[in-house]
Structure formats: structure tokens, C-alpha cells
Amino acid sequence: MDYTSPDFKKWLDKLQQESWQLELIISGFAIYGLLMAYEPLQIKLYKLTLTDQELQSNVLQLVLICCNILTFNLILHVLLRGLWIGAIGLRYVSGDIDFEKLNYSEKFDSYLKRKVGSFDRYIARLENYCSILFAVSFLLVFYLTGIFTAFFTLYVFMEILNLLTFIPKDILEVIQGSIDILFLIAALFVVIDFFGQGLLKKRKWTSKLYFPIYWLFSKITFSFLYRPLAYNFLDNKLGKRVVTLLIPIYIILTLITTSYYKNSGYLSNLNKATPYYADTKNYENEALKDTDFINIASIPSKVIDKNYLKVFMAYGKHIEDFVIEKNESLKSDDNKRGYTTSFLDGVSVAIAEKEVIGERKQSNLDLYLKTVDQLYSIKIDSLPYASDFVVSRNAKKRLGFETYLNIKNLSDGKHVLTITGPAKANKWNRDSESITKILVTITFWYYPD
Asked: Given pLDDT bands bounded at 50, 70 and 90, which one contains residue 358?
């Protein structure tokens, strides 16, 4: 269709008048879908976080933020549309506001005529707010997606640089650090221009300097998908007013939803790595909800009535990092981690059945588990217990390591199990050395049958 033709413009004018119906239909289905998907997405995010899958968890966090924005905006849109429809229905019955029939004093009459005005103007303003709110909901989602794709592009570029093994490590770190600094400076200019509503595009000398940065970020943020919508907002006073109003509303809602009442100065701030706190997530029989996941380790229950104790330690990417750091021989080409496909897994299995690779992997697994036993020590009441971990999955299919301890010599009553192992000294520094600390403390009571 020729967008310059009169017929196309008439078609658009007709769609504008009837767009409210489509808005309500889309909002209704979208709200229902977002509410139904929110909890499963939260559960998936928590699982990814526990297994140290940073890239996937970051993507899912972005999806959840977009879900929150869309849900709030669309619910507000439906409420305003309902008010708009009610106003139109009332206009059909009552017409415009007749201030003479109200018979107010001159002071209130002049004030209300000035502030309230025509009922038709009120309906028109509601219509404008509804249309703008519906459009800005998806525009904000695109903005967030653009921020993610920009940093994702930087991440991919850095990973590509890491593949250039012929470059000395020190030089590569300098190159990567320089690229990080340049990227952050360029991103800062984009942020200044965004909140300044095109401030850097208005002056001749700043526009020349800013144009290459603008061109680059427009490509890596896929802004061609939403750029016309964004500039249409910038030339509309009401659109800018709505966007400016929504930002503090989001901040206030975030503060409200994250606020809670602390009813004790002692019990509310317990450190969970102490003998004074019994976290339900450390006991398999009490982790009944879908959102209850073992963070580090668990035992069957708070009360143990058998002369042995099952200990399950959840797997995390950091565990394998420490294992490989302890035994560099486990770092081989056929044991690489990362993204793959089930097709490649099938090929690997077929090769392993025909060659000795399978036997080598079996030997490596034995060494792997022995290294886990060396790195992570188990104590009950400060007395060490020998562990003999095997690979296992718990009732919620969580991958980890399982062992059984002989506790028949324990006395009746309360006991404290601790697992000690390596942890990063500084999470902001990848090259920081690991330190050994208590990772989890689990209190239990032993009353044998």
C-alpha cells in the first residue's frame, strides 16, 4: 500500500477511531498471559541462578522486568479505558456538564469551570492518555531490550577476543579493558542524549562527535524497530509528560513492593550460616513448594531417626571451577563446558562407544569426585566425617553430589552439620584466589528408633 495515497490516510483515520477495541483485546489477553507466565519464569530464574548460568539468568531477568512493566502499564490502560467508556456512556445519558443546574456559589462556579471545563475535553484527554500509555508500554520494553542487546554484543565480542590465543594474555587484558572503558563512555553519551531528549543532536559540533556513537548503538540495540515510535513521542508534549510521570511511579512501586516490616531486631537478621537458624530449604521433607530449592546442601529432615545421615550437596558451576583449579589434568578438550545441542551429545556418545574416550572420561570422573572429596569437608559438631560423594539428583531433579555418613555413635539431641569448602575471595575479581570457609550450617536432632 502506498502510504502517501489518500485512501491509505483514510484507512489510518478509520483505524485510529476503532483502535480502542484492539487495545482492549490485546491488553486483556496480554495481562492474562503475563500473570500466568510470571511464576514459572521466576522459578526458572531461581534455578538458573543456583546453577550459575549467568547469561540465561540475565536474559530471564530482563524478561521478568519487561513482564512487570507491561503488566502494570496494561492494567492501568484497561482501568483508564474503562473510565473512558464509562464517560462516553454517561455523556450519552447526561450530555455535557451543566454548571448552572449545580447552582454553586460564584467562587466555586468560576473555579470548577476553569479546572473541570468541558466534559468532552475530559473524554478527549482520557482517550489521549490511553493511546499514549498503550504505545509507551511496548516502547519501554524495546528500550530495555536494546540495553540488553548492547551489553550482550560487548560480551560476545569479548568472548571472540578470548579465542585469539596467539595474543599474549597481558596484551589481551589491556585491549579488553580499553574496549570496556570506551564502551562505557559511549554508553554514557547515549544516556545523556536520551534523558536530555536529543541534547547532543541539537548543536552542530556535538552532533558531529555524537553521530558515530549514535550510529553504532542504533545498530546493536536494533533501534530501527522502534525509532519512529520514539521520535513521535519526543515531538508530543503529552507523550513526554506520560513517560516522565511513569519513571517515578516505577521507582515508588519498586520501593513499596520491596518494603517489609522487621518485627525483631534479633530474629530477623540471623546469619543463615550459624547453628541458630533452621532454614526449611536445608531439609528435603520441608521443601514442598515449587519455589523451595536447595541452595548449597540438604539433609532428609530436621529429626534423624536412623543411624546414618544422607547429605546432598547441590552442583554449581563454581564447584567445577575449583575442581579444575585443583586438578588441571581435568581441563581437557573433550570435557569443555558451554552451550551445545542434543545432536552433538548423541555424536559424542556414539564416538565414546567405539573409542577409548569413554574410558578416559570414566577415569576423569573418578578423579573428579575424589577432588570434590578433598575440597569439601563435612563436620558434625566440629568432628570431621569422611565423605564419599557420588553424582546424584534430588527429588526436584537438581544435579549434585550425595554421600551417607555413619552417625550411630552420636548422642541423642541437637547436632550441627557444617560443610567447609573453597569460595572466591572477591566476587568482582575473576583472578582472586579462593578461600576456605563454612558454606552451610544445618542443625538437626538425632533420636534413633
From this structure: very low
Distance from C-alpha of 22 to C-alpha of 414, rounded to nearest angstrom:
63
Domain edges within the chain:
14-163+226-257, 280-446
User: One-letter amino acid identity for 76?
Assistant: L
Please, which residues have CB within 8 angstroms of residue 148's CB and are 6 or more apart in sequence? 58, 59, 62
Q: What is the DSSP letter of 283?
A: B
Is residue 420 a contact partner of residue 297, using CB atoms and an 8 Å limit? no
DSSP per position, 5-66: SHHHHHHHHHHHHHHHHHHHHHHHHHHHHHHHHHHHHHHHHHHHHHTT-HHHHHHHHHHHHH
Residue 253 backbone dihedrals phi, psi, to 5 degrees: -65, -40
Please tell me the predicted confidence (pLDDT) of residue 288. Answer: 63
DSSP 299: B
Which residue carries 539431641 as its cell? 413
Using alpha carbons, select from 310, 306, 275, 276 the residue that is nearest to residue 294: 310
* CA nearest to 372, candidates 422, 442, 406, 338: 422
Task: Answer whether 294's CB lies under 8 Å from 51's CB.
Answer: no
DSSP tag of 333: G
Under a CB-based contact definition with an 8 Å cutoff, are residues 298 and 287 in contact? Answer: yes
Question: Is 446 a residue whose pLDDT tops 90?
Answer: yes
Residue 308, φ and ψ in degrees, nearest 5: -140, 155
Tell me the pTM: 0.72
Q: Which of 193, 181, 245, 185 is nearest to 223 (CA)?
A: 193
Terminal Cα-to-Cα distance of the chain (whole angstroms): 82
